[in-house]
TrEMBL record:
It comes from Alexandrium monilatum. Keywords: Signal. This is Uncharacterized protein. Gene3D superfamilies: Protein of unknown function DUF2237. InterPro entries: DUF2237. The lineage of its organism: Eukaryota, Sar, Alveolata, Dinophyceae, Gonyaulacales. It comes from the Eukaryota. Residues 1-28 form the signal peptide.
Amino acid sequence: LKWQVAAMVRICPCVFLALAIWPAPVLGKPSTEDETEDNTMRLSLYGSALRKCDRPGYMAEHPDAVDSRFPHTGYARDDHCGSMSSDAGSHYVCVDLPRAVTAGGKVYSDFWTKTGQAGSPEQATTWPKPGPWCICMWAFARMRARRPEFSGMVDCHATNYWVVQNYDLARSDECHALKALCSACGLEGDQTKREGIRKKCSLARQICPGQDDAETCQAGGNCQM
């Protein structure tokens, strides 16, 4: 289990949407050392099978949130926050978009106004409506720094394992985002299937309160697993 703490170029716009439709590759069963985002697509934060970020299920239970423009989520639009190297935004975090209503009675999610992606509630009605949605993991880390409550919106079992793998503990926003997810989802507990996940969460607890730079991390000798 390996992850890099060197600074990375984030090819991810601030927009959380993944609008491209891409065919899902066939899943393989590689060894841990050979795992990539393309051949190990559907593991959850716990290292177990990734559950659906179930937008259709939500809409079936909440008819007023039926969304004809965005009926499905995920980069492949298969209602899984599956990993793919072609997804430059890494839309791997499943969140439950909160419900709000405009003054005119239209249902929308105030997630889009809180993040500044929609300029008004009326504009937000043109964005994905309430319910499960896969968002950019890099944007999640940046926005969570300003709105810590976003951690409570995450569906842990439907959020991808590569969020843990790819967050860089040398970057403050990513380190603190990982620490928050580890806490909210209980990733150091027994239900986590991979020891490397627990170890990285433990390391995040140690590093995040202090100086989050590459030198500090590397000095500990535990920056690669």
